[in-house]
Design goal:
By secondary structure, the chain is an alpha/beta fold. 32% of the residues lie in helices and 22% in strands. The chain has one domain (6-193): P-loop containing nucleotide triphosphate hydrolases (Rossmann fold), CATH 3.40.50. It has five helices and seven strands. Bound molecules: guanosine-5'-triphosphate (GTP) and magnesium ion. Magnesium ion (MG) binds at residues 36-37, 53, 75.
Length: 194
């Protein structure tokens, strides 16, 4: 999957704006600032496709990117930004609930976590939603360039146990900055679509 042909197609802030056209959807979710947009840019090889935010938690919306005219990368809104208002949190929860309830099109869920941190309650809730959705599911531990090589295995294990992942769910080391884990994640995506 070299040189993905990718284009932004839509932002959805309400369920009636969701895409439901039968093409498979590969959704990225995770804490605000964890690197969802950066990972999408890394996978597609387009450095400025998905907007990398300097100010986290600014919008609650779902962004769809069409890849090779065959499937969507779905950039789900981030959570856990400290200064988010209560109203914004409720809007986020309602939108996510709608997406997970109504979109039977989820083919693969990719949860991003920061490899440096133990999972927090919001991350655990996200995991539960993905597992309940019943689609294929994988966790990518991003920003691995920020820790030493020797610390990686222990951190991956802490994430696995913190999220309470069943054995069949893989946790892969990732760095959107260096491209670490890109091949592995693309292989998972290709396998899902096959
Ligand atoms: N060092 C390092 N920095 C990263 C990596 N991935 C993302 N970042 C940085 O983390 C910050 C947030 O990245 P985004 O891709 O905007 O994160 P996001 O999850 O899309 O954020 P929201 O859309 O606000 O929820 C940016 O400053 C990125 O440059 C990585 O693998 N390594
Ligand atoms: Mg983003």
């Amino acid at each position: 999957m070299k040189g993905l042909d990718t284009r932004f197609v839509r932002t959805a802030a309400r369920p009636d704006q969701f895409i439901n056209d039968g093409l498979p959807q590969i959704a990225f979710a995770g804490r605000s600032n964890v690197g969802k947009s950066s990972v999408i840019n890394c996978l597609t090889g387009k450095s400025s496709l998905a907007r990398v935010s300097s100010v986290p938690g600014k919008t609650t919306s779902i962004n769809y990117y069409l890849v090779n005219e065959k499937f969507y990368f779905v950039d789900l809104p981030g959570f856990g930004y400290a200064r988010t208002s209560q109203a914004e949190k409720e809007r986020w929860a309602a939108l996510m609930e709608d997406y997970f309830n109504r979109s039977g099109l989820l083919s693969l869920g990719i949860q991003l976590v920061d490899i440096r941190h133990d999972p927090m309650p919001g991350d655990m809730i996200m995991t539960k939603w993905f597992l309940a959705a019943g689609a294929r599911f994988i966790v990518a531990a991003n920003k691995s360039d920020k820790i030493s090589r020797s610390a990686v295995p222990g951190k991956l294990e802490a994430i696995r146990s913190g999220l309470g992942l069943p054995p069949h769910v893989q946790v892969i080391e990732f760095s959107a900055r260096l491209g670490t884990g890109k091949k592995e994640l693309l292989r998972e995506i290709t396998g899902t679509l096959a």
